Structure formats: C-alpha cells, structure tokens
Amino acid sequence: MKAGTCILSSMKSGLYARLAGWVFLFCAVGCAFSQADSADIIPTFVVADVGKKFNLITYGDARFTDPADTSNSNAVIRRTLVDKVAQEKPAALLFSGDMPFRGSNDDDWQQVDKEIKPLWDAKIRIYPALGNHELFVREQRGLQNWWKRFPDLQGKRWYSVLFGNCIFIVLDSDFSLKNGHVQDAWLESQLAHLPAEADFVFVMTHHPSYTDSHDSLFGGGHSARKQERELAARLEALQPTIRPRIIAIAGHVHNYERFEHSGVTYVVSGGGGATPYLFDRSPFDKFQGGNSVNYNYVKFEIDGPHLKATMFRLDATSPDHARFEAKDTFTLDSVPLKTTPAVTGTTAPARGLQ
Fold first, then answer.
1. 7-333 to CATH, choices 2.160.20.10, 3.10.450.50, 3.60.21.10, 3.40.50.300
2. Which residue from 109, 135, 175, 219 has the fewest beta carbons nearer than 10 Å?
3. How far apart are CA 124 and CA 184, in angstroms?
C-alpha cells in the first residue's frame, strides 16, 4: 500500500460530503463545541454510488506484527483471511479495531501495509475503528500512524458514513462516551438525525456491549464495560422508535458471538488472527458453537430493506488446505414503524469542507 493512499478517498462527493466539517478540530485543541452544531447531525462521509444491493464484510483483531511472533498473532491465519476477503470483493470492509499489534511501532504498521495489500489492490473501501492496540504503546504516535494509512480521517477518532441505504457510525471506545462529553454529544446528534435513506444502522466499536468471554477457559477474555453496556441501553431504547434496524459490531474478543436484545443485533467478530479466546457460551448467545476456536469474518448481504448475515469460520486444521465454512446466519428486515418516531432525519446545512 502506498503511503497516504486511502480507500475513503475513492468516495464520490455528495451533499453531505461537501457539508461535512472538521468538527473534530475542537476536540484536538481541547475546546468544547455546542451539541447544536449542525455539523454533528449529518454523516461525515457519503458514498452514493453503491445502490441498495451490495455486500459488506466485518471482522477485527488481526494484530499484524512480525510473523515470527506466534504468541500474539498467527500470520498464516491473518493472510488467509485477507486473501479471502479480497476474493469476496465486498463493497466495504468494516474493521473493528486492533489492526496492528502495537500502534506506535512503525515495523508493525509496515507489516500491516504488506499484509493488507490484497485489499487495497482489490479496491475495497476500508472503514476502520480504533482499537486499544492502535493506541499501544504511545497513543499519539499510534494515532499518527493510523491517520497516515487513512488520511481522510486525519484529526478524527470517530466518524460516520452514509453508504447506500446503510449508515456506519464508527466510534472510538477508548474515548469517553459519558454524558456531555464530545463523542457522546456527536453520537446523540447522529442517532437523532438518521438519514431518511437508511434501512440499516451499523454502530461499530472495538469493545463489545455483550460478551461471555470473561469466563475464558485458558486465560484472556474480557467483561463488557460499563460504557458499552450504557451504549447498548441507548440503542435498545432507540430501536422501537425508528424504522432502520440497528446492528452493533465489535471486536476485542478473539472469537465470535451474537446477541439480540430489544430488537438490536450485537455481533462480536474478533477472529482476525490474534490469539484465540476460548470460553463457554451462555444461553443468551445466539451462536451455540461450543468453546472452540473461531477465526472468522461476517458477510452482510444487503438487498434493499432485507439483510442476510453469515459468519464464515476458517477451518485451519490443515494449514495447506484451509477452508471456510458457514457456521452462523441470521436475517433482518427494515420494516415500517409501529409507532411514530420522536425525531426524523434532516438535511440542515453545516459549515465545513467543500
């Protein structure tokens, strides 16, 4: 991948793109900005040339690093997944964080450049979320390395994309979402002014709102943090009041999980190559796949108001003959509201880039 090249730059400009502002500048200089700032209520980017029938793929937690480091990540698995996604040629890849092992390490990012080159060569649009490893070991250095690979995100730690009839709301779960904080105010405005075109709302964070991995059998694993649990409560309160369906995507847990709460679907797809977490699944996990390793990616097939999702698990028991198996599937439909929504979309103008 050439330095400074970014799939985001291939987006066609539209009304929203012309109006999107550098609202994140205020965060960078430590200044507050008003919740009423009109730049908050429109998508940061717009891709209008994809229609309403296309495929998306999501996964995360590759931890690209020196292939000789087999304790933190598996280079064979990483490359097999990248090659498979490149073959799939989705309209977009939603990467849920932990792309490098050490975000402030230039060698790890050079390994990222080398290993994801098939995705860039396939001209796949990549929409990444910040994970804790992007910020490891030195946060500012890690951010600079991330922005170098995704220059359209320069200065931004969170953003949104109107992508056909989907909207991606990409958050930084290493940054506060507490009431009144800058990211929280932006998110509240985004959710209150969802575009009328949207049939599906993908909310992506690195840390999950629900997980069973805190009971990991062999070490590792995580508990759902208070911040993400509160985000889930917000999404679940919103879902009955809007037409589009909400899908929350996360990584951080090096496996696959799927939960449904109050109409919101939660997908954890962190099987990108990092050391697996093995754990027993509660009855609340819709994927009852036992406590096995699940290197995986999830494919979303969008067809207007209809969505079909499939988790493909990499069977790597024979490295020379790796194959992918469909192990979980679900469908969603964007349906007319049974109740009148409290807030409708808007196209209010805002200052910003032309």
1. 3.60.21.10
2. 219
3. 30
Task: State how far the Cα of 12 lies from the Cα of 260, in Å rounded to an integer.
Answer: 34
Alpha helices by DSSP H, listed for the chain, are 15-19, 24-28, 75-88, 106-115, 117-121, 139-149, 182-192, 226-238
Quote the CA–CA distance of 142 and 135 in Å, as a whole number: 5
pLDDT of residue 28: 33
**Residue, of 43 and 26, whose pLDDT is higher:** 43
Q: Is 117 exposed, middle or buried (0-12, 13-18, 19+ CB in 10 A)?
A: middle
Cα(165)–Cα(334) distance, integer angstroms: 11
CB 42 within 8 A of CB 20: yes
pLDDT digits (tens, 9 = 90+) for 172-218: 999 999 998 999 999 999 999 999 999 999 999 999 999 999 876 66
Closest CA to 328 of 304, 278, 303, 292: 292
